[in-house]
Amino acid sequence: MDKRKKRRTVLAASFLAAAVAILGGFAIQGHARAAQYRHLLDNGYQHAFSELTAAVGELDVALNKGVYATTPALFSTLCTQAYGKALSAQMALGELPYSNVELEQTAAFLAKAGDYAMALSRDSGEGEVCTPEQRETLSALSEVAGELAQTLRGLQSDLYAGTITPEDLQQAQARLSAADGEEEITSGSAFQTVEADFPEVPSLIYDGPFSEHLTNRSPRMLEGCSPVSQDEARAVAARFLGLRPEIFTLTSQGEGQIPTYGFTAAVDGGELYVEVTRQGGMVLQVISSRTGGAPTLTRDQAITAARDFLADRGYPNMVHSYSIHQGDALTVHFAPVQDGVYCYPDLIKVSVALDTGAVIGFEAEGYLMNHYTRTLPQPAVSREEAQALVAEDLQVLSHQLAIIPTGGEYEVFCHEFKCQTASGSHILVYVDAQTGQEEKILLLLEEESGTLAI
User: Can you say whether the dihedral through the CA atoms of 224, 229, 234, 235 is positive or negative?
Assistant: First the structure.
């Protein structure tokens, strides 16, 4: 009996030892696998950082060469190269887990430099060579890129030497969320040095979204308008939506290019948010959190409801261009038509609930910023002359005159041709009605939910 007990004890101990050994083996294997994953992750981040460093250096080279180019063809090529290198750098930057927070200035510089180079490339494609001021800006951008590249190369050397190591996403998020005095941050990403002494970026003056002059641009529709009080703005919001003023509560006062009062109201089981401009008292946007029921309106009925809504509120001659079905609503894009010319910069978007026909969304920033009564010239280029520039394998379905926006604040008076490709898809071709230059091509994405132009 004692022998059997002793045997059982020995067997139990043996099984326990085996189990410990197996678990130990799994633990070692798990640690090894985790170390391997971490090694692969570090290699991925190091590769992304290497790509970023190389692309910024090549951006510097392309910008520097562009300073000395004197022919439109070569200048355009170098500017296009600079745009490509800036884009490559942005893509590499996006692979670093902390780029959106800690490398903000770097990301902004790459976006600005790339867009500026592309704008110059586009102009040189029309036979223009840059002005002395533009060359000076290119030189300044090249200098910034050069300093940034030098800093990145220094950090890259430290990475390869093992002096610093890249953080993974979890580490970066944990450190960045350490908070306001709750926990002392004794160390941070080594890449913070990239931003610490970031070179001064020159002001960009060009026809593009990063142009310095756009930050001080005032809305055309509000020029000369008097300021309104909170109560006046509340009344505007209520009247715009056919509701009682007392249900609206002031919840924000937006600053920026178009200062606004923001009001909220509980309506139909959801919350409405309405922004009214502090100058002029015009509705900038309406957003609703309401959840709709089963649709009762067709697409055409919703478009008509949106058009009638605009007409009743003082937006005449608005013609819808495209629409898209989003959830339980239809969002319709409208542009004003002046003397038969479509004015696309003055866009207004209206969202209609498909169950009730009520307007639950409105966005008029384009209209407030750009709308005015234009002095429209007679086209210097006829429709026939412009249509000759349309590719031969495209079938022209319709034509109209239109004002289209550029990348910045300017506009181009164009012939618009809606065309069909050999595969049956549709595109829009725009030809400058004054110069005869092909200005823009947009692809129409036509799906069951609606149509978008890209």
Answer: negative
